[in-house]
Amino acid sequence: CDNVQGGFDVTQHMLKMQRRQFAFIGEAGSQAPEFEERYLGHCRALNEAGIDVDKAMQFDAISTEQSGYQGVQKLIDSAKRFDAVFCASDLIALGALRCLREKGLRIPEDIAIAGFDNIPISSFANPALTTVHQDTKLAGEILVDSLLKLISGQEVSHYLIPVGLVVRQSCGATI
Questions:
Q1: How confident is the model at residue 149, as a pLDDT?
Q2: Sheet of 84-87: strands edge to edge?
Q3: Which residues pair with 130 in a beta bridge?
Q4: What SS3 string covers the chain?
Q5: Dmax over Cα atoms in the chain, in whole Å?
Q6: Using CA atoms, how far apart are residues 53 and 58, in angstroms rounded to an integer?
Q7: Are 39 and 3 within 8 A, CB to CB?
Q8: Measuring CA to CA, how many Å separate 100 from each of 3, 10, 49, 139, 161?
Q9: Which of 84, 89, 117, 138 has its CA 20 to 30 A from that of 40?
């Protein structure tokens, strides 16, 4: 999917919600290329808004709730100010959400939070999680088609599947 565009879109939405001090929770290196692309889109949105990217506001996390919880705990322990958290996956965001609430922070009043993937549970979080939707059904169809083409010796095309922003309560108002 178009991870860069998804990272850009979700960050741009939070910017429209008047958020200015961002943290990114998720790996942002070559060991996690999808997360790295999401981070690059996030950084592009900040740069276009005239906000310098603070690399110290990126905290590594793998795609688990526990890792998201720990990433936000590190963010809080850093004593850096923030009013928005973009997580590289919904699982990371769910853990981050739990940590923020346990620390007495209100979502979205104090901190806006968003994830990526639009997993089913994200709509049941409290508050419901703003996220980026990937068309996994289409991705699966393309994968099977490509595999069949490879088996038969045909040339395989590369696709970039578009994403869609799903705005929910964790970022405040809708667009």
A1: 81
A2: 58-59, 22-25, 84-87, 112-114
A3: 114
A4: CCHHHHHHHHHHHHHHCCCCCEEEECCCCCCCHHHHHHHHHHHHHHHHCCCCCCHHHEECCCCCHHHHHHHHHHHHHCCCCCCEEEECCHHHHHHHHHHHHHCCCCCCCCCEEECCECCHHHHHCCCCCEEEEECHHHHHHHHHHHHHHHHCCCCCCCCCCCEEEECCHHHCCCC
A5: 58
A6: 9
A7: no
A8: 25, 19, 26, 33, 32
A9: 138
Tokens representing residue 53 in the block: 């990217």
Per-residue pLDDT of the chain (175 residues; tens, 9 = 90+): 999 999 999 999 999 999 999 999 999 888 899 999 999 999 999 999 999 999 999 999 999 999 999 999 999 999 999 999 999 999 999 999 999 999 999 999 999 999 999 999 999 999 999 999 998 787 788 788 888 888 888 888 777 899 999 999 999 865 4
Residue 98 amino acid letter: R
